[in-house]
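Homework help board

Subject: predicted structure for assignment chain

Our instructor gave us this sequence and asked us to write out the predicted structure in token form, then describe one feature. I got the tokens but I'm not sure how to describe them. Can anyone check?
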Amino acid sequence: MAKANPAQFIQQVRAEVSKVVWPTRREVLLTTGMVFVLAALTSVFFFLVDLTIRTGLQGLLGMFG
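My token output:
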């Protein structure tokens, strides 16, 4: 593979970066908020699953213990 000229490489990098569509501030805030909301919902779900399993196991072991 041929090595590129450093100046040519920088020019190509700038050309590629100019093609990137950067998100707006509103889009970033909206997606960040959605991540926090979904993380909170997921943590509540797994808390309830854990609580259910723990309660079931304690009841089951209490019957035999």
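Reply (TA_rk): Your tokens look well-formed. For the description, you could write something like this. The two ends are 72 Å apart (CA to CA). That's the kind of observation they're looking for.
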